[in-house]
Amino acid sequence: MAKKGNTQSWSPTNSTRHHTTDVPTTGPKRDPNSGTYDTTQGQETAVLVAVPDKRQPEAQTREYLDELEFLAETAGARVTKRFIQRLDKPDVRTFVGEGKLAEIKAYVQHTRTSMVIFDDELSPSQLRNLEAELKIKIVDRSLLIIDIFARRAKSATARTQVELAQYQYLLPRLTGLWSHLDKQRGGGVSQRGPGETEIETDRRVVRERIDFLKEKLKDFDKQSHTQRKSRGGVLRVALVGYTNVGKSTLMNLLSRSDVFAENKLFATVDSTVRKVVLDNTPFLLSDTVGFIRKLPTRLIESFKSTLDEIREADLLVHVVDISHQSFEEHIAVVNDTLKDIQAADKPMLLVFNKIDQYELDSAALHQETFEGMNPDEDETPRPTLAQLQATYMARMHDPVIFISAQERQNIEELRALLVRHVSALHAKRYPNQVSGDFE
Prior knowledge:
Layout: E1 2-3, E2 6-7, E3 29-30, E4 37-38, E5 44-50, H1 58-74, E6 77-84, H2 98-111, E7 115-118, H3 124-134, E8 137-140, H4 141-152, H5 156-170, H6 198-229, E9 236-241, H7 247-255, E10 272-278, E11 281-287, H8 297-302, H9 304-311, E12 315-321, H10 327-340, E13 348-353, H11 385-395, E14 400-402, H12 411-429
Parallel strand pairs: 5-6, 5-7, 7-8, 9-11, 9-12, 12-13, 13-14
Antiparallel strand pairs: 1-2, 3-4, 10-11
Helix pairs in contact: 1-4, 4-5, 5-6
């Protein structure tokens, strides 16, 4: 992504915010003319920093950092160390306390670490203060996720959505990004006053680009809306869920298509729609972008047209990675995000995937009953799949199914469940139309 007078790159391995430093690093070399980094020098190294609340359980803190490390690896960085500081609230100036900041600085200087990644969104002043102190690249969670979206976006719509999110992230952080910004234009012969500062010029350019991208997305929205209207008379089913739960693999199974699937976060950014006919029951199945905790609001706003596939769906299939220790929290994150986009009131099927990867604690094998799960207590053993199924079948009004898309376990049962629900919705929505009618 480029801006007049400055070459911008949004990868954490090519951050927009750089300062010169006397500390040698093993990361990419900086071009003093353009201010960008040559990423051909090899994989960058990163340290992770988290400032959890003092009441947050240790297991949850580890889980959050595991996810952040997975994000960093997806973006191409290798994590070498984690720093954790428990505070009532983050430090206003540098997010971490002075002592922890000194510890981080000593480590990055000794190991020549390339960047520091924070598990929260940093304010513009915190970014500036941290870069001034550590003299290496500082990446917060929002920028890391936006970068991964930029890498994954393939369609013109998705690329435009990501670019808008990038510029919206950049705008409040322009101050101090480039050394030339303290210079001024104008003030010469036949011109009065000091002229317009370059920081004001850069902000104006960014705002103009944001306005342009928003107008461009409106055109894409109109096209998408027209396409969705042309599908009238056909039920729409959308796969939703936390990122990396196997939605694309399931999409390929149900639709016999070849949607890209990979064991990395946000493998799917572009929304994909396929025609599916099961037992003479037709419907349109869409694979949508995965959700994640602390998903940047600007990304949700930018991906409005993509999320419309969820808003306008007749049935949601909520896919959950049952093998993940925090699957219940993932369910809550997805449900909260669906509320944010006004899609929480839709009919929904809960599909627990990856039963082949479910690992059972040995202590659970000796339990005859399962009274509940408390993710805050490390000593609580995991229940068996049979116990989980009985628990969720008892709690949920709609049927719940446990499958393995990778190993194709219980896929026929899932197909039968989909047919039953789609047929019922079709009869209710289009009482005068035969469900097999499909152009």
